[in-house]
Hints:
The structure holds 2 protein chains of 2 kinds. Chain A is of the alpha/beta class. Chain A has 2 domains: 8-153 and 291-368, Response regulator (Rossmann fold, 3-Layer(aba) Sandwich); 154-289 and 370-383, Response regulator (Rossmann fold, 3-Layer(aba) Sandwich). Helices cover 43% and strands 19% of the residues of chain A. Chain B has one domain (2-277): ABC transporter involved in vitamin B12 uptake, BtuC (Orthogonal Bundle), CATH 1.10.3470. Chain B has helices spanning 2-27, 35-53, 57-86, 90-116, 139-161, 163-173, 175-180, 185-207, 218-232, 237-258, 263-277, and strands at residues 129-132, 135-138. In chain B, helix 1 (2-27) packs across helix 9 (218-232), helix 2 (35-53) crosses helix 9 and helix 3 packs antiparallel against helix 8.
Amino acid sequence: MKRRSILKLSAAVALAVAAGSAASAESLKIGAVAPKTGGLAGGAVVSFWPNVQLWAHDVNARGGLDVGGTKYTVEIIEYDDQTNPAETIKAVQRLATQDQADFILAPYSTGLNIAAAPIFARYGYPMVTHTAISDQVEELAAKFPNMYFTLGGASGLATGVVEVLSGLRDSGEIGNRVAMVNVADAFGIELAEVGGPQLEAAGFDIVYETSYPLGTQDLSPVVKGAKDANPDAFVAWSYPPDTFGLTAQAKVENLDVKAFYTAVATAFPAYGAANGAAANNVLGAGGVHADGEAFQTYAARHMEVTGQAPDSWASGMVYASFQILEQAIEATDSTDKAVVAEYIANNDFDTIMGNISWDENNNNSAYWTVGQWQDGVFKGVASTGREGAVPVRVKDGWE
Amino acid sequence: MGILITGLLLGGTYALIAMGLNLQYGMSRIMNLANGEMLVAGGFAAFWFWTAGNVSPLLTIFLLAPVAFFVNWLIYVVILRPLVKRAKSRGQLEVDAILTTFGLSFVAVGLMLATFGGDYFSYQYLLKPVELLYDTYSLNRLVAFLAAVVICGALYLWLNHSRAGMSIRAIAVAPDSARLVGINVPRLSALAFALGGAVTAVGGALISTFLTLDASTGVIFTLKALIIVIMGGVGDVRGTIVAALMLGILETFVARVIDPGLTLAAAYLLFILILLFRPQGLFGRKQT
């Protein structure tokens, strides 16, 4: 399914620039392929597409990318991959061969990025991923030297949770009993497989453990089962529909735990909006330096330009990954893929998420792992090296 | 006991999802693969009225039902009736209908995407615990169950004890013969299709109070509805109700007593077993 979208603003700005100054109206074609329909559309529409719009707006509003004196506006070519890896590959191929895209933004989600990596590599496009979470970075980096990872890995995310829970236990707020559930889909299974052993190694007692199919319409058996086991903490390696469902069920059952964690989508604005006061002190995957100026100005701009709020996990990193591309192009004064790729490999970048640098596996090793809703704002409470973490609070009821 | 009640509540949800498709497939002979999208559209409407105007979904459905009825009637008359007219056999109509409504589902997803965006939508209405026989249940599911009872009950009574209902059952059983006794088959087929769509949309509005939906989730519900309709037997309202309840109780039982991870396997196992021993479904008519 193809949809070509030329941002009116970039056209208007290009016209204005051409009419008003001596600068030439050059433009760079930037490809963007991600779900607009299909299973991951809900996530992409929150984290990815608004940032594409915002980034193009920001770049074009200041005249475009400065490449050796010439200003290049960005022209975004969008494709919907329907959450289907085959479609992602087809779209990238089309962008590379037919549309002659100068650069292609990395796709959305781990699976689609891994599917598209070979074809990015074949055509030589630098691939700065933003929503690919993988523990296999070493193998991937060896196979695809131009692929970069920014959002972390499953082990890191699980370790963050274990750290937070250990902290609460050591300060006497919670006991040892943990109920751990996961959605029976790739990411949920991966998190459970690393998280379970890590919890046990940290001395926790997993008193209830189960998985449930993706799309389960009634999660009350899961929550009732957890409640019967009398846990101190509840950890769910969950996806958006069940993140919402488990929280609602926990509220109805009045699940009395001092730490409640649901994974994906806890950082979405919709989660806070739907749950209101019940979301307070809920832990979730991700996090940002919410009180920091960089994120706050970014969030305000995001709201102003796109009409919706960013999420508090991936959105910022998506934008940061675009900034990396932008800075590399401007620093090398080049629109050549190879030159830009070389620059990305050998430098670090100052973005709205802070400084991003690569380790030997092209991986950003400083990322947020756990966040918590505190009075209506989702704030980062644990990371592998980002500043701005706030203290963890104990969950105190569902009202 | 708790399992039974939870299972019944879930069965009520399933009945809401499947009843519309039963009307459309059983009475109008249209296997409507865009059924799930109508459900999600109903859910969107309820979400929109609730977040924008604080209008309870229970009130929205009174507005939603006639609108959905009209929209589905239009779809039948404009897109599907030509298929019915030119189909030389029931088998051909089924194939044509499946292909057409399959395409229609993509159109519907695209329209909803353009109108509402692709984001998940979720709201909490009546998310209060209710104590029943030593166990807690969510009030919104109870309300949905009661609504399902009312809707299914009303449909059953209407189809079996009114003249119009009897005419509709006649066209389900033998459309050619029904014409001979003066029943206006085209008009009643459109009526049944539209009614099925209205029931689905209302069901969607009710389940949106406790499920998270987005523009692309329709297909999951179509699949579930399909299984329930086939299991219960096409064309009989009782079949859908019984199959939905059975499925709800079975899934809850498996989730509570065995393993929540096996609910899907159990559901499809039941489906296979019923089809093996009673291919026409629980209440279906044997094909001659």
